[in-house]
Amino acid sequence: MEGLPELRGSPSFILTMANALAKRRNQPDNRATAAHTLRKIMTTPDTNQKQLLYFADPMCSWCWGFAPVIKALAERHGDDIPIQIFMGGLRAGNTKSMTQQDKDEIRTHWEHVHERTGQPFNFDFFAREGFIYDTEPACRAVVTARSFHSSIALRLLERLHKAFYVEGQDVTDRDTLVALGGLEGVDVKTFAEKFDSKEATMVTTIDFEIAKKVGVSGFPTLLAGSDKEGFGPVTSGYRPLEEVEAQINEWLEA
Questions:
Q1: pTM of the model
Q2: Residues in CB range of 58: below 8 A, 6 or more apart
Q3: Which domains does the chain have, with CATH numbers?
Q4: pLDDT single digits (tens) 9-57
Q5: 86 half-sphere exposure, CB direction, 13 A CA radius
Q6: CA distance 41 to 84
Q7: pLDDT tens for residues 51-92?
Q8: 98 with 132: CB under 8 angstroms?
Q9: What CA–CA distance (Å, rounded) separates 123 from 113?
């Protein structure tokens, strides 16, 4: 496709992979459900339908830096170009408490993101002791929101970014995540049931594996394309809105 270098992967490719990954799971009762969930997200009746695929993580500081960009793109293009969101699993499954070295490295990242993007950060976070930086629960919360609607997932992703980076909330905590999910207008009890389900855990894991198989090497990553023409990268890593918008417009005009 002109305007964007080609990348392996398309909705058809992703759906085929999702089915294959689901069949490899050890919870046979949930295989079909997980694959069906991703199929509902990705399938469009028109193979020419242009789409944006956004790979991110709620606890990725550069994704927080990119949050105003993806929000602006959704506002400008969301009606005509659906944004499909996938979770990357930046530190999913981590079980070790942060060391001082971990804190120093992450603080440096936060400072760089703030300098580059202007996004606010609450550095009181680094006074916290024993914090386990596991991004799986927050990713699963976004996957749960996605089961209601992709727009709800995008809004919750931004809310989780802000809750973690600005408000100092613990977005690894289940009850915190359920409460934040409820602020997006969904029934809290239903959100909690879905969040706690085996299906949510499985689909979240499949998201992580899709990101790896498609070739995503960092977050945020934004791809553009269609089922018919394939997909190519708009950005891998942070880029300001004007640069991203210029590349998308070039793609649309090609």
A1: 0.89
A2: 87, 135, 138, 139, 141, 142, 157, 160, 161, 164, 171
A3: 11-40+60-253 (3.40.30.10)
A4: 455 666 666 665 666 555 555 555 556 666 666 656 566 789 999 999 9
A5: 30
A6: 7
A7: 999 999 999 999 999 999 999 999 999 889 999 999 999 999
A8: yes
A9: 13
